[in-house]
Amino acid sequence: MSFSYLSHHRTPLVWRVGLALLLGLALLGVDAWLRPPPSGLANALWPNAATPTQPINTVTSPTKVTLRPLGGGVIPMPADTPAAHASSLLALPAGEAHAVLAFWFAGTKESAPDVGIAMAGFERSNQQWSAAHWVVTRQALGQQLGFAVRRIGNPVAWRDAQGRVQLFVVATGLGGWAASRVVQLQQSNWPLAQSQQALAAMQFEVVRVLPLSWLFNTSLLVRAAPLALADGGMVLPVYFELGYKYPVALRFDAQGALLGLVRMSTHTHELQPTLLALALKHWLALMRDQRPDGHITAAQTVDGGAHWQDLPDLALPNPDASVAALASAPGQLWLAHNSSPSSRQVLDLSASSDGQQWTLAQRLAQGSPGKEFSYPALVWADDSLWVSYTDQRTRIAWQRFGLEGVR
Amino acid sequence: MDAFMAHYLAWLDAPPLLPALVVMQWGWRLGWALVLGAGVAWAGARWLGRGRRRAAAVAVVMLWTLWPGPASPAHWLALAFQSPSLASSLLCAQWLWRSTRAPQWLSVAPRSGAGLWMAALGTLVGWLLLGDTLAWWLPSVYAWGFKPTALMAAVGLLLAFGWLGRRSMQAQCISAVLALVLVLFVVTRLPSGNLWDALVDPWLWVVLQLMLLRALLGRARD
């Protein structure tokens, strides 16, 4: 790289520095003109709490609640797809034809070229799941992005302030899951007609691949649901997993524009973070532990996600398995997790009021050795708690619970 | 004045501005076309000479890379490496421009002066970004690349090289390349909306380290 060919005449210093100064000021001016305005402070929002008119800055006292099963079963699969994994649930507001949308990846087997993102909706009128249909395929994703995608997975859905569904999926580059990137898509045909049939017409278009890492933008994945914010935006937990595993929080505005990213832990064995709002700005992240004999790990922020601190591990063991947490209301926390130290054959739902002390609320699934019930997802919709999880890597199971004893 | 300060302080906290998908698609393709075109010009100097055959080969490869879809090399290069930085693309464009005028097929890397300092700075920034990616340290250098303060730092660097240019032609040329990178970045936000991705990519970082190593070994031999 030689520069001597460019010029044989030195320009006077005053011209050169003056020109650089003018150019620099012009660049900063244009940048200031083009950039969106700063976002406000991040305050959490709870799905089962009235919009707080007063700031909630402390954890409320626990209330004993019991779960009442309201339904359960298996979400219909697309035809000829023997494998399914990593479901994500999205609550829809009253008035929509569906209470909950479920997204997951399915195909002949995990990482197969034919794996796509499937979706089904729980219909309010007949209390049944609709037939599943594909919303994202690897080929379509690559075509829209303008570059090849080797495999896709881990869909996470969010509904923006306009009511448009945004979908975040993992798309791998050259390599396995550790070579992943996070692609943001949004509903292209919006709003849909309020009918059961309209769901099958839901389509998504790529917004962009999110720029999250300097190293070829590789090895950032998404898995758990976002934390809703009072401004209509959200915080999406993602994680790095190339050798070191660490969690990262991405903040989005109400339209789904990226506002920034913050690393959530100094530890390098934590992945697949899931977020819980303890108070408006006091949030907890619970994570899968990659270490042998690991426990669910934790980190917290007390300033609305600007800074994070590591916390001691929870007492709950974690067999290197994904966990899902949900704060349905202040002090009303739920955690779906594999409770066995070394396998995924038991899946439990635990409850807590502070995020530190958890008690078993419901055994969701238990199988013989070798069986797997994993990758849970939680959502609050229609005054009830919904759980979905991978059942034997072949299908997505779901359960729904009502709460009794709520204040 | 207060309003100006308030606006200025608000801008310092402004969120990232990311390129639109279509801008990314064409920007990335053009970047890879310049890199591959420069590669063909470099390799072709030996086997194709400097005439029309080499120019035709460069043109064919660049058009092939710009072509949308899986038939394009850019479709697969972006799978693995996403996009070259604006700095890499501009240096390759320079190489292409120069290859039509000068006979050499490989230039001599700078052994001293501003070029060497730039290589050292690029190497340092690359290590900081790699360490950030692998969580070797807590402050997120990459996240800083989205903020206006990173652009301010780059403008400061531009001024520094403008000042250094009083004695060095290399510094003048570096400030010209840096100025072009910053202008393109501010206007297009390519390649990703993050300033570091515009300034140095991992492959350029490797090249800068090789240049630095070569210069240091050369100095040691001298």
Q: Which helices and strands occur, and which strands form pairs?
A:
The complex is a heterodimer of chains A (407) and B (222).
Chain A: H1 13-34, E1 66-74, E2 83-91, E3 98-107, E4 116-123, E5 128-129, E6 133-136, H2 138-145, E7 152-159, E8 165-172, E9 180-187, E10 204-209, E11 220-222, E12 227-228, E13 234-240, E14 246-252, E15 258-263, E16 270-277, E17 283-289, E18 297-301, E19 309-311, E20 324-329, E21 332-338, E22 346-352, E23 359-366, E24 373-381, E25 384-391, E26 395-404
Antiparallel strand pairs in A: 1-26, 2-3, 3-4, 4-5, 4-6, 7-8, 8-9, 9-10, 11-13, 12-13, 13-14, 14-15, 16-17, 17-18, 18-19, 20-21, 21-22, 22-23, 24-25, 25-26
Chain B: H1 2-12, H2 21-47, H3 52-66, H4 73-81, H5 86-99, H6 113-133, H7 141-144, H8 148-164, H9 169-188, H10 195-199, H11 202-221
Helix pairs in contact in B: 2-3, 2-4, 2-5, 5-9, 6-11, 8-9
N-to-C CA distance of chain A: 71 Å
| Fraction of residues in helix of chain A | under 10%
Overall mean pLDDT of chain A = 91
Helix percent of chain B reads over 70%
- Would you tell me the structural class of the helices and strands of chain A? mainly beta
